[in-house]
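User: Okay, second chain of the day. Same drill as before: sequence in, structure tokens out.
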Amino acid sequence: MKPVSKISGMPRMKAVFAGWTSAINLLTIVQTIVDGLVVEVTTSVTFKGIIQPLNAQQLMLKPEGERSWQWLQIHAVEGSLNLKTNDKIQYNGFKYKVMGIWDYSLNGFIEYHIIQDYE
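Assistant: Same drill. Structure tokens below.
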């Protein structure tokens, strides 16, 4: 018998995601200070998921001054991409910052909202 904490009442999305996802490559960016200078170290990460723009309703929930910025959402198969809020990534040549994380791991995926980072 499964403990209550492992039962979500929702179907596992892993089988559905298998038909929608593809292998996506992005770079994670870690900034450190070395001798008073900011040094960026990038690491390539490949994960199974989907990246798409936020819809109009989702954008309306964002702060007014940020609605016209490039917002994307990432749906990643559980455990394949482990980002935290404020992490920085590079995707398709643009830098983004992780602004929100929704953990649906009981259903087999994690959702991230990212915004194009100020250059």
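Helices lie at 14-20, 56-60.

User: Thanks, on to the next one.
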